[in-house]
Amino acid sequence: MVLLLAALLLMVAPLPAHNVAAKDAEFLKQSQGAQVVPFIYLGAKHMVTGYDHLLFLFGVIFFLYRLRDVAVYVTCFAVGHSITLLSGVLTGIHLNPFLVDAIIGLSVVYKAFDNLDGFRTWFGFQPNTKLTVLAFGLVHGFGLATKLQELNLSPLGLVGNMLSFNLGVEIGQLVALSIILVAMTWWRGTSDFLKHAVAANVVVMTLGFVLMGYQIAGYMTEKAA
Q1: In 119-192, which residue ranges form alpha helices assigned H by DSSP?
Q2: Cα–Cα distances in Å, from 1 out to 30, 59, 114, 196, 201?
Q3: Which of 18, 26, 24 is nearest to 147 (CA)?
Q4: Distance between CA atoms of 211 and 9, rounded to whole angstroms?
Q5: Is pTM, for the whole model, over 0.85?
Q6: If 0-12 CB within 10 Å is exposed, 13-18 middle and 19+ buried, where does residue 74 land?
Q7: Fewer Cβ atoms within 10 Å of its own Cβ: the N or the C terminal residue of the chain?
Q8: CA–CA separation, 34 vs 104, rounded Å?
Q9: Residue-wise DSSP of 93-118
Q10: What is d(CA 211, CA 103) in angstroms, rounded to the nearest whole number?
Q11: How far apart are the first and last CA of the chain?
């Protein structure tokens, strides 16, 4: 598992978060009226391939052993994600995409640091984990909203299409989360889990810093242009 995370570090370093594939972007631009099934598919595709979301969720469930706890935390994330995805696109609330994605990278760093018990050790307190997952869920939702806003989606059927897209995101999240949980359950059953838990979270934290650095560099380049 640690080696897989390290490999992911090399893979995501040059990739922008929330990127929409060219063919998907073209479809979204040309869509007129309700397109329920295609938007559900594209929403699910985004979540399954959204490495920044998956890294955060991986950190969130890392030390959650009960399905009930997993459900609570993932629901907090889903509620936050849905609120800002829908409100961002439907109301036109716009934030700089580089800064939003940098904060998403920070969310990955935060969760890994929290898993390492960094807040208690360094600062002597523990933030409310459910509230922070909800708060970062709001940021993750804005991350995708900013990309969809750039496509100038048709207002015809927009509400239904965005609800369909958001449903697809949640379906994709369940699929990805199921795979992660199966892998985590297997890993926890080995003698190596606790031995390598610290190393795994250090790798996740490094990935978060890479994502942050990439987006901050993009923001600075944009400002300099």
Answers
A1: 129-149, 158-188
A2: 41, 13, 19, 9, 11
A3: 18
A4: 10
A5: yes
A6: buried
A7: C
A8: 30
A9: ----HHHHHHHHHHHHHHHHHHHTTH
A10: 9
A11: 41
DSSP tag of 120: I
pLDDT tens per residue across span 52-64: 889 999 999 999 9
Q: Long-range pairs for 188-197 at CB < 8 Å and ≥24 separation?
A: 188/65, 196/1, 196/2, 197/62, 197/115
| Structure token digits, residue 202 | 């250090």
Rounded alpha-carbon distances, angstroms, from residue 209 to 3, 125, 212: 18, 23, 5
Name the packing angle between helices 51-61 and 67-91 (round to 10°).
150
For residues 207 and 8, is the Cβ–Cβ distance under 8 A?
yes
**What whole-number distance in Å separates Cα of residue 222 and Cα of residue 88?**
22
| Residue extents of the structural domains in the chain | 35-224
At which residue do the structure tokens 């409100």 appear? 87
